[in-house]
Amino acid sequence: MPSFHGVFPYLVSPVDRDGRVKTDVLARLADDLIAAGVHGLTPHGSTGEFAYLDREQRAAVVKTTIAAAAGRVPVVAGVASSSTADAVAQAQHYQRLGADGILAILEAYFPLGDAQVESYFRAIADAVDIPVVIYTNPQFQRSDLTLDVIARLSAHPRIGYIKDASTNTGRLLSIMNRCGDSIKVFSASAHIPAAVMLIGGVGWMAGPACIIPRQSVELYNLCKAARWDEALALQRRLWRINEAFARYNLAACIKAGLAIQGYDVGDPIAPQAPLTADERKAVEAVLRDLG
pLDDT of the chain along its 291 residues, tens only? Predict the structure, then answer.
């Protein structure tokens, strides 16, 4: 099984006013991110607006990303549904398209018990032959992954990673202590990536890396080299992007940042709203300061 580590930007989903995926824009963005040194690409993370896309749009985003990556970096495709059968079908489809891994997300409308949450993720991992990253984001999900469920899922031969967006860094350390080497932890933008690397994380999967890829890779390299003074100095500067990301709509913030950088990614998908003029200026000021 391939090993994942480093910076995996959560890609935006550029969609025009008629609902067509802007494949040329997405391919250019993916190519530029790879040139900046990122270690992988993740279509359909939270920044990818998966909840607002239909099946054909989702498939087009994944297919375009895989083609653009052309084997240079792994593509870990997000799978999200409130239905186990639909999630399994997505995962199998993305594997056939050539995805190197699956980011498994649960969209629960009604609350679920631990057994049902576990069965959802286990069914996805049972259905594919590629690594699975389980993803939990209690801020947006009605049913979280508990520590007991994570520990049981970590024994699955294809579940080797977790991306936790809980904002509770102590929880990450609890996962590491409980599961040992059986599951590796990716930071989210809700955590301080350098702090997660310090306690044993393997990288981060996050939307902000789309607009600061070079700096994100530099931070990762400093952490891997244990040059902590330099890493923390850079982390303090980059945290302003995380603050903006948390303050505004996720996709709107990153799409505005990319538009400022010359990518015609369009507005967030309705009913979401784009950033206001003042909010866009605030993002532009941060990007200008970061170079």
Answer: 679 999 999 999 999 999 999 999 999 999 999 999 999 999 999 899 999 999 999 999 999 999 999 999 999 999 999 999 999 999 999 999 999 999 999 998 888 999 999 999 999 999 999 999 999 887 766 678 999 999 999 999 999 999 999 889 999 999 999 999 999 999 998 899 999 999 999 999 999 999 999 999 999 999 999 999 999 999 999 999 988 888 888 899 999 999 999 999 999 999 999 999 999 999 999 999 997
Sign of the C-alpha dihedral computed for residues 194, 190, 98 and 153 taken in this order: positive
In 64-116, beta strands by DSSP E: 76-81, 101-106
Q: Coil, helix or strand for 1?
A: coil
Measure the CA–CA gap between 211 and 258, rounded to whole angstroms.
6
Residue 102 forms beta bridges with which residues?
A: 77, 132
Question: Which residue shows structure tokens 């579940």?
Answer: 159
Q: How many CB atoms lie within 10 A of CB 18?
A: 5
Give every CB contact of residue 212 below 8 A, 6+ residues apart in sequence.
238, 241, 287, 290
- Active site (catalytic) residues: 135, 163
* Token pair in block for residue 283: 């993002």
The answer to whether residues 36 and 214 touch, using CB atoms and an 8 Å cutoff, is: yes
End-to-end CA distance of the chain: 37
Model confidence, pTM? 0.95
Residue 277 parent element (H or E): helix 277-290
* Residue 227 φ then ψ, to 5°: -95, 70
Kind plus residue range of the DSSP H or E element containing 30: helix 23-35
Q: What DSSP line would sit under 193-206, residue for residue?
A: HHHHHHTT--EEEE
d(CA 275, CA 267): 9
